[in-house]
């Protein structure tokens, strides 16, 4: 269905939600601070994007056997866009003289500056589907780097675009050793007509689907590790419960219906646990619960008059990041699951007010993204836990709620004023930003894991 832009979501109310859950009217952050925050003395946060050499890749026109001709343009278009959006290559134009299916002249393409040459061919497949054969040539060394035939569903099948995205990701793996982020989707919340509903969209801005229609408030979507379920908080029953939706069937179940708050869920990497924020003895604490709801709730944090929320598991599942106002203002911490070793990882200077929320742990390493406040504007920061260094990723417009893509390189974030507002994809290596959805009312994006991987034989 069509998405209608609406009034901007105001994201500065989370602690008021926590202290009075009947008045939840915002996206889930700490209350707006009535001061302008400057970086503390001694802390230098600046944009640091290092120029990176991008190997040049040319995508030749795809060939087609009889019966598959109509598929060449849509398939080649998706593949080319995926390889562009992955930010690992500089794409060259094949030129008007390129002939589909012609013998590849690697020497010529090398002279034209190409490092990689991709050719493709479509053939009819089973049950109205098709087969896509991709061959990646190394123009520098004059050899085939990767080759595989991918089965594609019919173009009208819900899995068609995902299958093409997975093929694109495999091409990236052939060339770089790691797959791209294309075979993924992004969940988000849209405010409209007094309600907040949950949607999903392909990573490239296609195929928007509405998931909830409760006329209520939905917050904090989080993907299960296998991409088959999404956990979220909803007021559908009139109080803030945690739910889990099965995406194939649309069925929902209650994860936590504890008295008070149940919010900001996150799955452990093995899918056995869900960490979330819940009310404990007048505070809001991070707790875990087994996904099958056996064993009860295990409290993870002890705030002693403060509030902790927004847990995000490390890739190995042994630690989690979270936000807490135990120092008076919201900061980002890391601690072990079941431990008592919370460690501050966001900027802190005694006597200097600060604002750091919405942590998201990268799926591929020791980096945590979050948003901070600089000159009264939200900006995205990444902290590297290996050395404690912090890097500012944005310095213009209002940017918040970062969520890592499955490649650990790209982030999705929301903005209420960048290019009219919306959701945007940021490449943390080059600084390239592209719009995902434009308009006001979009917030709380959550990027899925890879939803389909085609493991072709080892690259040559």
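Q: What amino acid sequence fits the structure above?
A:
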């Amino acid at each position: 269905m069509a998405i209608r832009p609406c009034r901007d979501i105001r994201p500065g109310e989370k602690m008021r939600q926590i202290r009075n859950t009947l008045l939840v009217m915002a996206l889930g952050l700490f209350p707006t601070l009535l001061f302008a925050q400057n970086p503390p003395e001694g802390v230098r946060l600046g944009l640091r994007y290092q120029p990176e050499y991008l190997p040049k890749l040319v995508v030749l026109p795809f060939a087609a056997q009889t019966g598959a001709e109509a598929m060449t343009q849509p398939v080649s278009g998706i593949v080319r866009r995926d390889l562009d959006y992955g930010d690992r290559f500089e794409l060259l134009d094949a030129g008007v003289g390129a002939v589909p299916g012609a013998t590849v002249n690697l020497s010529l393409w090398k002279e034209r500056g190409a490092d990689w040459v991709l050719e493709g061919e479509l053939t009819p497949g089973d049950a109205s589907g098709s087969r896509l054969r991709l061959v990646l040539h190394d123009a520098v060394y004059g050899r085939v780097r990767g080759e595989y035939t991918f089965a594609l569903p019919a173009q009208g099948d819900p899995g068609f675009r995902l299958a093409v995205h997975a093929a694109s990701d495999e091409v990236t793996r052939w060339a770089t050793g790691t797959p791209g982020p294309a075979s993924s989707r992004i969940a988000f919340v849209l405010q409209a007509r007094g309600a907040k509903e949950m949607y999903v969209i392909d990573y490239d801005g296609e195929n928007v689907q509405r998931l909830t229609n409760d006329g209520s408030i939905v917050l904090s979507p989080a993907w299960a590790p296998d991409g088959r379920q999404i956990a979220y908080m909803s007021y559908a029953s009139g109080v803030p419960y945690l739910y889990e939706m099965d995406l194939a069937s649309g069925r929902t179940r209650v994860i936590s219906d504890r008295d008070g708050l149940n919010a900001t869920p996150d799955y452990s990497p093995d899918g056995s646990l869900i960490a979330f924020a819940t009310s404990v003895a007048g505070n809001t604490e991070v707790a875990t619960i087994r996904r099958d709801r056996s064993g009860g709730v295990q409290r993870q944090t002890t705030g002693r008059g403060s509030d902790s929320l927004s847990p995000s598991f490390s890739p190995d599942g042994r630690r989690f990041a979270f936000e807490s106002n135990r120092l008076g203002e919201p900061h980002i911490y890391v601690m072990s699951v079941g431990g008592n070793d919370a460690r501050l990882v966001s900027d802190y200077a005694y006597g200097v007010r600060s604002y750091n929320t919405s942590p998201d742990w990268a799926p591929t390493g020791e980096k945590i993204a979050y948003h901070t406040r600089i000159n009264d504007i939200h900006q995205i920061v990444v902290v590297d836990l290996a050395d404690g260094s912090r890097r500012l990723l944005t310095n213009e417009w209002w940017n918040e709620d970062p969520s890592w893509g499955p490649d650990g390189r790209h982030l999705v974030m929301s903005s209420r004023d960048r290019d009219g507002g919306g959701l945007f994809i940021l490449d943390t290596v080059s600084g390239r930003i592209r719009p995902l959805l434009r308009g006001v009312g979009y917030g709380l994006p959550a990027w899925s894991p890879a939803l389909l991987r085609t493991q072709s034989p080892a690259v040559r």
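Q: And what stands out in the fold?
A: Confidence is low (pLDDT under 50) at residues 1-44.
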